[in-house]
Design a protein that fits this description.
Oligomer: single chain
Number of strands: 0
Structural class: mainly alpha
Shape: elongated
Number of helices: 4
Order of helices and strands: HHHH
Largest sheet: none
Distance between the termini: 20 Å
Radius of gyration: 22 Å
């Protein structure tokens, strides 16, 4: 991906400023149109306390929380 970004920048940096700004605006506006990640609903949490086996260790809880943030 870094190579792609470098290639794009190499092509765009020689454009006139107004075209660079137009491209930047289109990119930003395109991001604004994407839906935000869905928040968890109570239905998503059903069964969260239904743990088969011993409770998770602190390390396992940290990993679960990390994985959830990464999603």
């Amino acid at each position: 991906m870094a190579d792609e970004l470098l290639e794009i920048w190499t092509r765009v940096r020689d454009w006139p400023e107004d075209q660079q700004l137009s491209l930047a605006a289109r990119i930003i506006n395109g991001l604004a149109e994407k839906p935000l990640p869905r928040k968890k609903t109570p239905a998503d949490l059903v069964g969260i306390l239904g743990w088969d086996g011993p409770p998770p260790t602190d390390e396992e809880v940290e990993q679960i929380l990390y994985d959830d943030r990464v999603e």
